[in-house]
Amino acid sequence: MCPAAFFRDLKDIQTFSSLEEPGFRLYWISTLATYAASQMDMLIKGWLIFKMTGSAADLGIVTLAAGVPLIITSFFGGVIADRVDRHKSLLVTQAAAIGISMTMTILLTTNLLQYWHFILLAALQGTVFAFIAPLRQSIVARLVKPANLLNAVALSSTSYNIMGVAGPAIAGMLLTFLPAYQVYYIIIGLYATGAITLVFIRLPAETAVKDRPFHLDMVEGFRYIGRNRKILVLLLIALVPSLLSLPYIYMLPALALGWLKEGQVGLGFLMAAAGVGALTGSLLVGSLSAVKSKGTLLLALMFMFGTSLCLVTQAQIFPWVAIMLFFAAASSTAYMTMDNTLILSSVPQSIHGRIISIFIMAVGLTPIGALPMGFLADHIGIPATFLIAGCVAVLVAVAIYVFTPAIRKMR
Questions:
Q1: 195 and 225 in one domain?
Q2: Main-chain dihedrals φ then ψ at residue 211, nearest 5 degrees
Q3: What is the CATH number of the domain that holds 109?
């Protein structure tokens, strides 16, 4: 059976309906390759840094070096995404990612690699991905029919969740019998695959915006949010849990090792439960494109996330905790995907980049929320911290359902 026939046969399965569309199919393959490369790169850099310095703090500094530019420059990336031809600009950013990986390969091959190189390259990579993320998100709506938008966003999320698990595992396996610089050849090849696949996507050319000052485009994005209460609330649905509930994932070592008294294997199982849950959630929500009451479903999934998080620490039994983490990860991924889709379907394509970049910034604040959550866990304990984090999500879902009927009526 030829690939085209295979994808046509998927038409009766809502989970993969957007893959029938050739442009999105190529985009999804490109996304899969790009995420695989970035996840493999993350693991190898961590391994190299710890091998070089033996310091967990040094790992944290490099992670921060990548995260800060991603948060700070995401909105600028969104503004630029709305001013340029997104397709061509995405090719440029893919080329930049290839260049960063090639630099790393050269430094490894020549034995010139030093710790400050990790910081510099991480900052550059964070900046590049601040542009890649809004460009990739804003181009999805141009590749699929409106009826397939939720499915397309869900499958994009699925590609990230798949490679979030498989990418590091593949990199770790490769490092057992290949030197790091040779693994970087594979990473470069994956980034190149992502770029080459994009070349074959056929989209009408977009006209670059040159007659309006950059700062006015920035202001226009914020003004649009200020005038549109629904979009503001949808962004708050991403922001509040990202800061106060979703950082629970960074507390899993404390949950496994400190509260459950499990070892590294137990922690690995809990991480796997959350990973499988996230993958399941993204696939599940991709099957719900035909659901008309998408706003109500969004709030129901958010309520389910908060409830699952509250229940995680209600029994100090390992299987119970793993099951509740599965449901928490599945429902959180599903509701964030639904939130992303409702934003994309509610704003004009001309400002997709700016609005989605704010969504990306909100989600990107999750690591920052880990600091106060960790402080709280140290003072009141893991069970109370998970309970509070879950209650925040439940209360936000209930409050929006009661006081913002426009959200629950969204279709």
A1: no
A2: -95, 15
A3: 1.20.1250.20
Task: Walk along the chain (411 residues) in steps of 10 and give the mean pLDDT of each run.
Answer: 45 63 87 87 81 71 76 71 74 91 93 91 86 78 78 77 73 83 93 91 63 66 83 91 86 83 77 83 75 85 96 92 94 88 81 77 77 84 93 95 87 74
Number of Cβ within a 10 Å radius of residue 323: 16
Sign of the C-alpha dihedral computed for residues 239, 168, 141 and 301 taken in this order? negative
Annotate 216-234 with b (16+ C-beta within 10 A) or e (fewer).
ebeebbeebbeeeebbebb
- Would you say how long the chain is, in residues? 411
My answer on whether 127 and 182 are in the same domain is yes
Please state at what angle helix 86-109 crosses helix 22-53, rounded to 10 degrees: 30
CA distance linking residue 129 with residue 135, whole number of Å: 9
In a domain, 214, yes or no: no
Q: Helix (H, G, I), strand (E, B), or coil: what is residue 145?
A: coil
